[in-house]
Design brief:
10 helices; alpha/beta; elongated
Length: 305
């Protein structure tokens, strides 16, 4: 939808929407039971010149032309809860503009409200405990279709799960390598939540054959330098009894770590790419936003670290 309008600089970010084709191209004709609503972050409203606008993220404004009853359509899309047939019964001429708005990403079509929450389904095994496990279980537990399991994993648990989330206050290097191999063998997705020093690191969200897992992350860290030092530290951290209790960052950092992990898990269970599939997120104390570090799979010919 739209190209720059050529208006004066005060509204140079405003675009004119292409007028909808009067011939229904069928984009939305099959969406008879889906709910039509404004896409997240979009607003429909009359502009200062009386022409209706769509405002989107990043101060993007689009003039909406070629339809005469946005006064009627706008409130219906803002409210949501209406199928295409509902909208056309109220506004019989709205078909072409609905299709144009959908193509432009202004509106979305989703399952009916009665089934949208239950659409997220799968088995999630939480391998580990502590504050982030409790917070993550609370978020995932809001979705009735998500079956949560807790406790250490074996290969059978990995094989029967859709996602394994490994959570640790100290890196269990050899065990995480073993779980990574099980996930690769059974096609099970895996997320990582770890304390390193004074901070949480989350991810990457590994999908076998698609995105990097723990073995890839480990190999790239060793290749970056200080390999002997890292191996010695990891062996120390994995010692069965070093006389220390687990230490977890607390407060907002826990919520941030759990939120990043939950976002990826839920996206994967919906059949969507997980946002964190190509990055490790680092929650640095005192910093306003987390840092994202790219992590790519190792080449197939790379030697095992």
């Amino acid at each position: 939808m739209g190209t720059h309008s050529g208006f004066p600089p005060a509204v140079s970010s405003t675009q004119d929407a292409a007028q909808p084709n009067s011939d229904n191209d069928g984009d939305g004709s099959g969406d008879l039971t889906g709910v039509w609503r404004l896409a997240p972050g979009r607003e429909l409203y009359p502009g200062p010149d009386g022409v209706w606008r769509c405002a989107g993220p990043g101060d993007q404004f689009t003039r909406l032309r070629g339809y005469d009853d946005f006064d009627g359509l706008g409130p219906l899309l803002r409210a949501g809860g209406h199928t295409r047939n509902d909208l056309l019964r109220r506004l019989p001429q709205a078909g072409p503009v609905l299709d144009a708005l959908r193509r432009a990403g202004v509106v979305t079509v989703s399952p009916s409200d009665a089934t949208s929450v239950a659409a997220v389904r799968g088995v999630v095994h939480l391998d580990g405990g502590g504050y982030p496990a409790d917070a993550l279980a609370g978020i995932l537990g809001e979705h009735p279709g998500v079956h949560l399991r807790h406790g250490p994993v074996d290969e059978a648990a990995v094989a029967s799960a859709d996602v394994v989330v490994s959570i640790a206050a100290r890196l269990p290097d050899r065990r995480w390598l073993l779980v990574d191999d099980w996930c690769a063998a059974h096609g099970t997705a895996r997320h990582l939540v770890l304390v390193e020093g004074d901070r949480f690191v989350i991810g990457p969200f590994g999908v076998p054959g698609v995105s990097a897992g723990y073995r890839d992350l480990r190999g790239r860290r060793l290749a970056a330098g200080a390999a002997d030092e890292l191996r010695a530290l990891w062996a120390h951290l994995e010692a069965s009894d070093d006389g220390r209790d687990d230490w977890w960052p607390s407060g907002p950092e826990v919520a941030v770590a759990a939120g990043h992990a939950a976002r990826d898990v839920l996206a994967h269970l919906r059949g969507e790419p997980a946002p964190g599939r190509h990055h490790q997120i680092e929650c640095v104390p005192g910093e306003p936003v987390p840092l994202a570090h790219p992590v790519l799979p190792l080449p197939p010919t790379a030697a095992a670290p």
